[in-house]
Amino acid sequence: MARGGLRCGQLKEAVFSSSEDRIRASQANVAVARPSIVFANRFSWLDQSLISRTAASVFSVLFPSNCRICSEPLLNISRLPVCPSCLDAIHPEAGKVCEVCSERVLSSFAFSDDNGLLRCPVCRRFERPFERSVAYGSYDGGLRELVHLLKFNGVRPAAGVLGRMLVEAIVSLESAFAQSGPEKVFVIPVPLFKDKRRGRGFNQSELIASAALKVYRSERLQLATDILYRIRETHSQIGLTSHQRRENMRGAFAVSRPAQVTGRAVLLVDDVYTTGTTVTECARVLRRSGAAQVWVATVARTQKHASKYLANMPPEAEADAMERIIAS
Ligand SMILES: [Zn+2]
Ligand SMILES: [Zn+2]
Description:
The protein has 2 domains: 1-63; 87-327, no CATH class. It contains 14 helices and 7 strands. The protein has helices spanning 8-15, 19-38, 45-62, 84-88, 121-125, 141-151, 158-170, 174-178, 194-200, 204-216, 242-249, 258-261, 277-288, 315-327; strands spanning 133-138, 185-189, 221-223, 228-230, 253-255, 265-273, 293-301. One zinc ion binds next to helix 4. One zinc ion binds at residues 67, 69-70, 72, 82-83, 85-86.
């Protein structure tokens, strides 16, 4: 537990970091309540009212009362301020997806390559620097909210749930890992620029990867956070064309010691696959440094539902159109 000067958010997380801490939380509650009893005879009703209001506000900080997604009251104390209904409503991707990039495809676009992988129109035409990119679910609804709680609201316990979801995506790569050779697969979270990491206090991809490996417990996978780093901050990708996004990312990442990844298999982990530009650039840099294979696993995947717009399009125009849709 961090010492001294805890902010409210930190306090909440610190208090609920283990069952032992939950006991400490209840003790803290007693300690807060006690002054109103001990000093009852020495303070006026106004002071007592102030004390009880303070106690109530401290209590509400220690025990968040509403689900941070649906705002319904939380009935059980939990480190994660999200109700069971909201968690139960989050489902893995159920539709047919491209087995290279995980973009949704309609059955009319089903096309398997020589290795039997179903490919979307873009992956039919372009080779990616990664073997496959897998994702747990679509980046919308409760899953999107959960990612935001971690990333923008600093609710770190969300990383545990997101990590378990990531494991469900990683499982589909098990046979590929087995064929990658006897050496361990490096699990590399997409790094943040150091200033951004300092400002946020953590790298969400690292927390998710770390939580996933605690559940997955594979001898084959090894977390490696000191291999890939971000040289500079990148501008927001919103509104950029695919060409501009690639330019924005170019030169943003580097490998610290290329000899470490030469001939090795890598599993790149990110929270969200939006347009794929970030993981594509990371994979490119890792491959250029000698990585034998790069796979990608993300918790969520932005789905453009591109295929439904391409129903009546001749095959030669599909990839161009899809690129435009993805860039939009
Ligand atoms: Zn809820
Ligand atoms: Zn694809």
